[in-house]
Amino acid sequence: MTMRELQAFLRGFVAERDWEQFHSPKNLVMALSVEVAELIEHFQWLSESESDSLPPETRRKVAEEIGDVTIYLMMLADRLGIDPLEAAWDKMEANGRKYPVERARGSAAKYTELGSN
Predict the structure, then answer these.
(1) Of residues 38, 115, 111, 114, the one with CA closest to residue 71
(2) What is the pLDDT of residues 42-101, one digit of tens each?
(3) Do 39 and 65 form a contact (C-beta atoms < 8 A)?
(4) I want to staple 113 with a disulfide (CB 3.0 to 4.6 A). Which of 11, 28, 31, 109 is the partner?
(5) What is the pLDDT of residue 76?
(6) Which of 2, 17, 10 is nearest to 68 (CA)?
(7) The pLDDT of residue 100
(8) Angle, nearest 10°, between helix axes 56-80 and 84-98?
(9) Is the dihedral of CA 104, 91, 5, 9 positive or negative?
(10) Handedness of CA 38, 62, 24, 20 (dihedral sign)
(11) pTM of the model
(12) Backbone angles phi, psi at 7, to 5 degrees
């Protein structure tokens, strides 16, 4: 399934239930925030290594939350007429300029702290 197909499916799912009235951009971004927080809960007190090797049941729950996050993000993008893939590519191009390999490799510093060569 493509992103456009997912957006079309979600649009139909919402329309069948008459939920458009609840899906303003403000409400969608708030719901997205809640779902991201639910995803975070699964990792909150884990060590780095524990977060890398989740038990199967936790991994299943994380997958559900990733699904929820994806759904709300796709609905928000659709509502605002934003192509999520185009937005991601544009952002990665900007990140490439902010974080050139020769300065950013192996560093977690923000681009404003990388300095110039």
Answers:
(1) 38
(2) 999 999 999 999 999 999 999 999 999 999 999 999 999 999 999 999 999 999 999 999
(3) yes
(4) 109
(5) 97
(6) 10
(7) 92
(8) 100
(9) positive
(10) negative
(11) 0.88
(12) -60, -40
pLDDT at residue 115, rounded to an integer: 78
Query: pLDDT at position 117, please?
Result: 52
CA angle 104, 85, 87 (to 5 degrees): 65
Residue 114, pLDDT score: 87
75 by Cβ neighbours in 10 Å (0-12 / 13-18 / 19+) ranks as buried
Give the H/E segment covering residue 35: helix 25-41
Angle (CA) 78-91-98 rounded to 5° is 165
111: CB partners within 8 A, 6+ apart = 98, 99, 104
